[in-house]
Amino acid sequence: MKKMLAVLSLVVLGVAAAYWKTSGESSAPRLRTEIEQNHLRIDVQTESTDIQPMHEARFAVTLTDAAGKHLPASEVEMTYAMPRMFCGQFNAEVSQLRPGAYLAVGVPVMKGSWEAKITVVFEKKRITMTHPFRVI
C-alpha cells in the first residue's frame, strides 16, 4: 500500500511539474494588446513574430479616443523584462512618429517569453499596461 501511494504521489508530482513548466509557454503571445482607460485607448502592436535575441524588437504604440482620433501624450515610456526571471529590466527607446503614434524599440538579450510595460501620461494621469511578446 505504501509503495502504491508513493508511486501515485510521484506520478501526480510529475504531471503537475510538466504542466507548470509548459503553462504560458505553449501558446504564442498576442501580437496586439489594447486597453481603454480615462477616455484613452492604448494599442500596442509587436511588429514582428520572429524577434531574435540581440536584435531590435519594434512595437507600435497608438493612442486614440473612442472615435479613433489620435491623441498626443505628454510622456510615453516602455520597459521590458522576462517574467519569473532575474535578468533585469531594460528600457526601450520611444520616439513619436506623429501625435498619438509612437515607435518603441528595444533589444531583448535572450530567447523566451518577455513582457513589455508601457506607461503613458495623458491629461496628468499615468496609465500603465503590459504587452507579452516572445523572442525565438
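[next item in queue]
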Amino acid sequence: MATITISDRLMSSLEQAAAINGVTAQDAANALLVNYVAANRNGFVPNEETMKAITEGQAITMGVVPDTLPSFGDADSLMEYLEGDE
C-alpha cells in the first residue's frame, strides 16, 4: 500500500475550508484519493487539467469549496457557455 503525504500547509488550508462546510479535511482528502485510485484502476489516467476538474468537482460536492459555477436549463445554453457565446 502506498502512503500519500499532504503538506502541513495544504492540510491547514483544507482544514479551514472543510470546517466552514462541516466536513473534515481528512474525509475530503480521502474521498478525492478514492476517486483518483478508482479512475486509475479502470485504465483512466487523467491529464493535469482533467485531474484539476475532478478534484474541483469533488471538493464542490463535499462542500469544501462553494459552488460558484453556473447552472443550465438545457443543453443549448450549456453549449453556448462552453463555446464562449454567452
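[queue empty]
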